[in-house]
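FAQ: What does a ligand-bound record look like?

Like this one, built around fe (ii) ion:
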Amino acid sequence: MRDEWLDSSHPSFLIPRFMLVHIIFAVFVLMALLGDVRIFLFVLNRAVFGSHREEQTPWGWLTYTVPPLLLILTALFWPLNRWMEQLMSTPFVESITPERLGEMPWSIALAKIGAAWLIIAAAVGGYWLLERIRVLAFPEPPLVGIRTQPSEVVRLRKEHIPFAILRRLGAHNDVYDIEITRHEVIVDDLPPRFDGYRIAFLTDTHVASFVRRDFYREIVAQVQLFDPDAVLLGGDFVTWRRHIRLMAEVLLSDLRARDGIFAILGNHDYWAGPDEVMSAMSAKGVQFITNRSVTLSRDGETLPLLGIDEMYRGTPDVMRAFEGVGPDEPCIAVSHHPDIIDLLGGRRIDLLACGHTHGGQIRLPFFGALVVPSRHEGEFAAGFHRVGRVLMYVSRGIGAIPPVRILCRPEVATFTLRRGHRMS
Ligand SMILES: [Fe+2]
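The answer part, i.e. the structure of the complex:
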């Protein structure tokens, strides 16, 4: 009996060996499918949604061609599987004789492609898994110079997910759950009179007629409750031209700030009609600071606030925006797209408010945000990031296209500037 188990040609020995091979193979295929998803997201984020100037992306066809191509490549594992099965069903030495291999030339050709793709895609999938585990197990230490208080959530939602059983599992659409985030930003040499200066930041409102009006009313009310010195507006005010007047009405009729409301445009505003957006908003008192700076004043002390045009659809001119701002002077800035960080060339910005990403809109518990239209993909999907001498805050914004947000609430971001030493 003992000899039978040791004899590799005996059928009873082949069963566990088969099982082991199949398990390893199944894991490889699963990892490869995960890798396919990651490769598709890479193409989607960087090429399809990432950096195009026109409303209709010239790379839209990749959305329909890349997934089947990846699946076909991965499906080539099947001949490989068959080949391995036949290889394993015969004693090892016998199975690698030229005669045996010659029986399946077609299979071997496909198997080579299948094997190569399995290794590549599985490596990508495996790396993604390990990277997510690393991020979750060893989160980055909180950035120095920021104090974030617990946020408040105003839930206006009703039942957006159609099945009660899904709602009980916690699946619901966050589109009407407004989160008011509260941050203190410590600036080393902030002019003393600006200690306690309050900035509210609204972005990506994507105002549309099918969204409930009380949603916009609540957002404006929350900004007014914060009692801001300045309101910054980060662009993408509308998705469609026909909603420009509605946007100005619901968003700006009751929005007030001591020093004013300052805005730059987003890519969707350019597509909807930049002149109409600007004139409708200017009529309500909004000041556009596209590629220029304004000076905020408090009892003779000043703080520059500058705006940089949208990264891809606009014409960002960083030199012009920084005109008159000293290289080591504290300043605040607003720009629509977080990719603007690549154009700043080592300049100092103590708070750069951005939007555009919507935080990814749909976030999965382990994988986080999947679709983030940025050259940096999910790296700058939301929150604070210190890059060189810039402290960037990416807001999840207000609106959503399509109107679905999972684990990613709309956000009214509020900041209080603090004079202090941030020890970095
Ligand atoms: Fe945008």
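Follow-up question: can I read anything off the structure? Yes, for example: The chain has two domains: 2-137, 146-419.
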